[in-house]
Hints:
Blueprint: E1 13-15, E2 18-19, E3 22-23, E4 26-27, H1 28-48, H2 58-77, H3 82-105, H4 118-140, H5 158-204, H6 207-211, H7 213-250
Antiparallel strand pairs: 1-4, 2-3
Helix pairs in contact: 1-3, 2-3, 3-7, 4-5, 4-7, 5-7
Amino acid sequence: MACSPLEQFAIIPLIPIHIGNLYLSFTNSSLFMLLTISLVLLLVYFVTLNGGHPVPNAWQSFVEIIYDFVLNLVNEQISGASSMKQRFFPLIFVTFTFLLFCNLIGMIPYSFTVTSHFIITLGLSLSLFIGITIVGFQTHGLHFFSLLLPQGVPLPLAPFLVLLELISYRFRALSLGIRLFANMMAGHSLVKILSGFAWTMLSMGGIMYLAHLAPFLIVFALTGLELGVAILQAYVFTILICIYLNDAINLH
């Protein structure tokens, strides 16, 4: 019996925990999030141990590339004083690194892609969005509401534009979560479907044994594409967080 391509996204409870009506089990999703965080912390710890190496090795160079990339991203997307950028740099760095490693670990066969579940991506985007909104109110007070009304708008159109801007602002968190979840789930499903098709043709033998090379080549190409998507989606999520944070700080 052929396995469904959606089976790879199944949540499996590893340590069942029930407290009344609450279901707090430790699942495979929890395990891979814990592994991702542990891997990132261990990598950064060993790279920065004793101040690092004067001549960077491969792992130190990898961490430095990520650090410089996120630092340039923050400097380009968030305008204002350097102290303000440094204040939010750790948040942006941790967000990008966590998503990047979650996506890359999900590319390993028989692993689990944490970001392929909407509840995970929505929880992350919603928590960041709430934090950005709090930063906006802390910085500007009630003047933060001026973000919903562009300058020079005729007074009769103001109520309609405020309503549209409010709806658009509230959908930012939703769109962030949907974009990441949909891209990761769709890409992994497609690779799984084509891999199963190629394996079926291989098991038939005869002339179909030679014909299986085409779908296998497509699978390899899609795997490379999915690797690029995994990196790109972490970048897109992070740069949009920077843009939204810049809007909250500078009311652009």
